[in-house]
Amino acid sequence: MSVAAGPLFAFDNSFVRELEGLYEPWQAAPAPAPELLVLNDALATDLGVDPTVLRTADGVDVLVGNTVPPGAQPVAQAYAGHQFGGYSPRLGDGRALLLGEVLDARGQRHDLHLKGSGRTPFARGGDGKAAVGPMLREYVVSEAMHALGIPTARSLAVVATGEDVVRESMLPGAVLSRVAASHIRVGTFEYTAALRDPELLRALADHAIARHHPDAATADSPYLAFFQGVVDAQADLIARWMAVGFVHGVMNTDNMAVSGQTIDYGPCAFMDVYDPATVFSSIDHGGRYAYGNQPQIALWNLARLGESLLPLIAPTQEQALEPATAVLRSFTTRYEDRRRVHFGAKLGLADAGPDDDGLIDRFLNLLHEHDVDFTAGFRSLSTALGEGDPTRALFADPAAFDAWGAEWRPRVAAQHDRDSAEVAAAMDRVNPVYIPRNHLVEDVLSRGTFGELEPLHALLGVLAHPFDERPGLERYAHPAPADFGDYRTFCGT
Q: Where is the active site (predicted)?
């Protein structure tokens, strides 16, 4: 493996410098014939890199892991995790590498990570590789989430490796380069706490505070304040997921970032018809990570973080339990507050309060009872404030919508500081027209796997502006056709 000549990224690798014992130095497996499939020019520019340089052969070698850029220190990070409720003490980056931390022009720090870069000491029997399809899925969905305003890791590039990987069939391999505030997870704290090394646990917490929750450093109880910061960030994140119908699919503790960003897109998808029991993951047989379960699972995961932090919160477990439990319990109130804000905005309520929860829930129940598409149902609502309401036609029994509307419209009108046109415009700014519809995603993945990339780029262009309805793009807003069937997604490992 070669080292690139001259600086490409501005690296400053604090994780490696400060947290020895939580990683293994490693390098990517060589890719015999790398080919750039998609590059995020805007993100590259934000990172201070000229996209034209990344498109060169030398740049592509960096993105696929063939070349270590100056200043990078590639490592496989260690973490544990509860997977579907069962504890695995040693997981880690089995097929991924942290190349290093990039400082952008504003001095902000970002992890630059490779996924699908080959076996590491944490590979647990896998080949460490990835296929083109799942890497393109993460690119599409993570960039769609970013455009929707949801905190997320982002995708910089997907590079085909020039070799096949063995799954149910032979598939072209690929490496995804992605960017995140960090890849420190609840599972990172679980792993560190299990080592029973109090200084390393303290160093990890101090590192995470400095990167993600700096106000906690000056609190009376910094580690309790850090826990509160993570609880608050996750409450808002999950509320945002719910407001766009996003199903993560594999909410294990090793997939929950303390930064409050969405990470590790595997069997993720967006709902079409609204149903709280919606599950897409092929391995989630019991529906543990169904759409409607996501808030409760987030709370469960945060309890595991709280357990790991107990030694830092107070000298004894008995002293730490009460304040840590109080922070954990605050998740429910915080989540309900954020849910009310996000769903209230979708209904045109800038001042949604607890008395509006019933109005929100009754509309969701209507969507469920009448098999109405989640995204289209909410987007159409802004038209229901004017003349000639097309929304009622979405419901098998329009009278049921009329009854709800008779309660909703006066509540919207009670906001005297905005007229109906202003309210409708505000609703259209939070209710997307375009999401990564599953049938469209599957189409571009199947085509992109074998080199037909035009549909992928077209979809990315649409998703980059999800709230702006544009003529000629109607098919991107339509729900899946009836013959699309029961949709299932896969992790891609």
A: 254 (proton acceptor)
